[in-house]
Design goal:
alpha/beta; Rossmann fold; globular; 3 domains
């Protein structure tokens, strides 16, 4: 046990002691934690050093929010809580954004922060970085715990792990006051106080009556549709999901982080006919997908006039009826629910009506044919479609690579253009649509999977976490970053009508982001055509070296907020 500190003589007997530092480390190691993401500083600097010395990989970032995002996506990829370690107060607050985002997106993550002493905080006596961090964290995560005694560390870590991964996964906060780390106790008692979590996320079997109800509704459909969300990808029930789709014969739509559960080129994929299937379907089965803003809350013109019946598979009962009536709620973990449905889909299962399948296929083929010429355009400067067309080919040729994607037009268009072929290979902004996840996700994806990472970033999105290119170079990670540089947010052509300062959405013209990567020893490349972009990405992915490609995009190519411009309120024109 690494927690033995020293021995003291007491009544001629030697007593071995341990302390809070080592008990936290041992508790994490006992539960299989291999990597910690964080930023060192008071009061957790020595903790990071000791964790590294004990064999845990400690990845130090330049900003806590990026470290938190790395921990969150590590949780998504592994189904084990990702660990983020921060200093107190400002560092904790930086990490809290990532924790809240993890909770919203159902990523299992534990934020561990050092904190000021309780007695000083409670009397507001002005301690170093004084803040009641537990109270602030509670509304923004699944659970929050504070540990005041070394003997409680084992239980606290166990509770945090179980809370993060059980039921609907999410973020958990663990508050460790500075004084806790130096507390000592008998080493044998300390070892006995540690807890190895057993069956942290037990299967939740759906009720047989609910399964029958869902099958009856699905069987009655004339125009059925299955929608997969990232919860379905997280479940890692890939074989069962493929069997459900292929045995039922039902067209399917994959939300962005679910893309690749089945290849986007699968004959039943309706991704290229999204508008048609949402509008015209009569029965929709949601698998790990929520009827939130990304699906227009299940109502409105997106869904057309045809009456809809919804089946929903979710582990959280409160999710049912959140926006519209769910006629067949199926509560349980996705693997168990899909397996139960499969048992009811036998050789007598009716195939979806031929006219529905032909309608979906015709619209899909029409839209693919319409888009194809735009993706082959080899212009200089590039537009978004030509550049994404080149990257589409990269992923087709390298289906095992992980795609990280964020931005406005860069994100919105990539979702529809770049086909995915394997599950959990597309990582993006998710439910909140928050910018700044890119570099944290890229770092964790490379570390947790060992696979090459292609991060496709808008120039605005990259600015939120761009300094982490130093982190990528420091750990020599196989990450290729492509920045779509059109000199601004949405576009680089907006003008301040009063003169003076540039418009609020405009950046420095013709910036060379590739020089940032070169400054830290990585490879920087500037490209102006899709052909150049394809060659540069291939070279980067083949080499495995940290690379940043500055892709020059026509400043006028973008549109306001991509496909969600309707969320920007419009002002009336005032008359003078």
């Amino acid at each position: 046990m690494s927690a033995i500190l020293h021995s003291i003589s007491e009544n001629a007997d030697e007593q071995e002691l341990t302390d809070g530092f080592h008990l936290v480390i041992d508790a994490l190691k006992l539960n299989g934690v291999e990597t910690i993401y964080g930023v060192p500083g008071i009061p957790i600097t020595d903790f990071g050093r000791m964790a590294q010395a004990a064999g845990i990989r400690v990845i130090s970032f330049r900003h806590e929010q990026n470290a938190g995002n790395a921990a969150a996506i590590a949780g998504y990829l592994t189904k084990k809580p990702g660990i983020c370690l921060t200093v107190s107060a400002p560092g904790f607050l930086n990490g809290l954004t990532a924790l809240a985002n993890a909770t919203t997106n159902c990523f299992p993550m534990i934020l561990i922060s050092g904190s000021s002493e309780r007695e000083i905080v409670d009397l507001q006596q002005g301690d170093y970085e004084e803040m009641d961090q537990l109270a602030i964290a509670k509304p923004l995560c699944k659970a929050a715990f504070r540990v005041l005694h070394a003997a409680d560390i084992g239980i606290a870590v166990a509770r945090a792990i179980r809370a993060a991964v059980s039921g609907r996964p999410g973020g958990v906060y663990l508050d460790l006051p500075a004084k806790l780390f130096s507390q000592t106790m008998d080493a044998k008692a300390g070892e006995k106080s540690l807890v190895k979590v057993i069956d942290a996320a037990p299967a939740q079997i759906p009720a047989p009556s609910a399964v029958k109800r869902a099958l009856d509704v699905l069987k009655s459909a004339k125009r059925p549709l299955i929608i997969f969300g990232k919860g379905a990808a997280y479940a890692q029930a890939d074989d069962e999901i493929r069997a459900l789709v292929e045995k039922s014969g039902i067209p399917f739509l994959q939300m962005s982080m679910a893309k690749g559960l089945l290849p986007d080129t699968h004959p039943q994929s309706a991704g290229a006919a999204r508008s048609t299937v949402l509008k015209d379907s009569d029965v929709v089965m949601l698998v790990g997908a929520r009827l939130n803003w990304l699906l227009s809350h299940g109502k409105g013109k997106t869904w057309g006039d045809a009456p809809k019946k919804f089946i929903q598979i979710d582990i959280e009962p409160k999710e049912m009826d959140s926006n519209v009536e769910i006629v067949a709620p199926l509560v349980g973990d996705i693997g168990s629910c899909v397996s139960a449905l499969l048992e009811g889909i036998d050789s007598k299962w009716p195939a979806p009506p031929a006219d529905w399948i032909s309608t979906v296929n015709a619209k899909r083929d029409e839209n693919i044919a319409k888009m194809a010429p735009r993706l082959l355009k080899n212009s200089s400067p590039m537009d978004f479609h030509g550049a994404l067309g080149a990257l589409r080919t990269v992923i087709k040729e390298r289906p095992d690579a992980i795609l990280v994607n964020e931005g406005a037009n860069t994100l919105d268009l990539a979702r529809g253009i770049i086909d995915m072929y394997q599950p959990r290979k597309r990582l993006d902004v998710g439910t909140w649509g928050v910018m700044g996840i890119g570099m944290g996700f890229a770092v964790a994806a490379a570390i947790e999977t060992g696979k090459p990472v292609l991060a496709v970033e808008g120039d605005s999105a990259f600015g939120f976490s761009g300094m982490e290119v130093e982190t990528i170079c420091r750990y020599n990670l196989p990450v290729c970053i492509v920045i779509f540089n059109n000199n601004g947010i949405y576009r680089g052509t907006d003008v301040n009508p009063l003169g003076g300062d540039v418009a609020t959405t405009v950046f420095v013209a013709n910036a060379r982001y590739d020089k940032m990567m070169e400054a830290f020893g990585g490879v920087g490349v500037n490209v102006t055509t899709p052909d150049e972009l394809k060659r540069a990405v291939d070279t980067a992915m083949d080499s495995g070296r940290p690379t940043l490609i500055n892709a020059v995009i026509d400043p006028a190519a973008g549109t306001e907020s991509g496909r969600i411009g309707n969320l920007n309120p419009q002002s009336v024109v005032r008359k003078k």
